[in-house]
């Protein structure tokens, strides 16, 4: 979770990663930020963070990624992270049909708790396990199209398509900024231009009843 | 407004979200005994709020841990107790809790990241070294482990 120079980018985009437990959300994040696969990964507790600076249209963008716990008991806790997400990566496991069947409910949450401009990207993870496949590409593709989502099958293990999923989401967000459909002055867009990065001197961890403007 | 804070020690819960969790908890209190889940979710929200709230969150989590030592959620309680104590700069206890979790899950990267973050805060506050050598943390870990393993048998 090392950050490079803090002012070295034009925007921050906030992402959330959602989906059933064990589908590989944390592994996808780790593959994206560290380019490594974690074979033995415990269930996430609450939420984990990751950041990486990427480039879209020659602009440096810092992705601030919130990897949520898929276990049912964290649902109340993780709900608070949806608001103000510019991108939502919704993940299922191509080898476990139940994780695909639950997408409708994840999508409902994502739609209800984010804003209309939030880019929702569907990821079918574990594409390296084709022999154990339980959901066809075509079926998921059709679901994605019906719901206006971009879709890719990825593997957090081999790294296949992982970059593309994160980058494509950023490109769409950037495009929404460029064409004006995402209003940077609106609340909870999940996008923050560099000019608006104030108070880096104020340590939010000091947690003493002062104004709560840090609700990321 | 989103802020550029991206770690579990610096983030602030949205006040509306905290109120939502408080409502759920208090509704259950009025009806009788609140569920572990309602207690935990509310405590988690408190831990990410202001200093007084963090204290209340810690109290709830400690009670959950005492009363439910064998709960599958034990690791959640311990993790957020580490977060809570670190946020009020009680670093000794924060380290004790995270060490307890690492004792059970030695390769848990999320726990290792939190430990690093706590140590970084301590260095920033000029505290690293003293606390570890002080032995307070070690004692606390010992008694926590005793508690947990006693609960398991
Ligand atoms: N073969 C294969 N295994 C994977 C892949 N991605 C994740 N896994 C494995 O799947 C298991 C679960 O991965 P996690 O990343 O912890 O899943 P998660 O979605 O974060 O789970 P929660 O934190 O409980 O919500 C781990 O044992 C991983 O090693 C993949 O692309 N291919
Ligand atoms: Mg995870």
TrEMBL record, chain A:
CDD domains: Rab14. It is found in: Cytoplasmic vesicle; Early endosome membrane; Golgi apparatus, trans-Golgi network membrane; Recycling endosome. It is a lipid-anchor. Its cofactor is Mg(2+). Belongs to the small GTPase superfamily. Rab family. PANTHER family: DRAB11-RELATED (PTHR47979). This is Ras-related protein Rab-14. It comes from Pristionchus pacificus.
UniProtKB/TrEMBL annotation, chain B:
One of its GO terms (molecular function) is lipid binding. GO terms for cellular component: mitochondrial outer membrane; peroxisomal membrane. SUPFAM superfamilies: TPR-like. It is a single-pass membrane protein. It is found in: Mitochondrion outer membrane; Peroxisome membrane. The keyword Signal does not apply. The keyword Nucleus does not apply. Keywords: Apoptosis, Membrane, Mitochondrion, Mitochondrion outer membrane, Peroxisome, Transmembrane, Transmembrane helix. Its main location: mitochondrion. GO terms for biological process: apoptotic process; mitochondrial fission; peroxisome fission. The C-terminus is required for mitochondrial localization, while the N-terminus is necessary for mitochondrial fission. Belongs to the FIS1 family. Involved in the fragmentation of the mitochondrial network and its perinuclear clustering. This is Mitochondrial fission 1 protein.
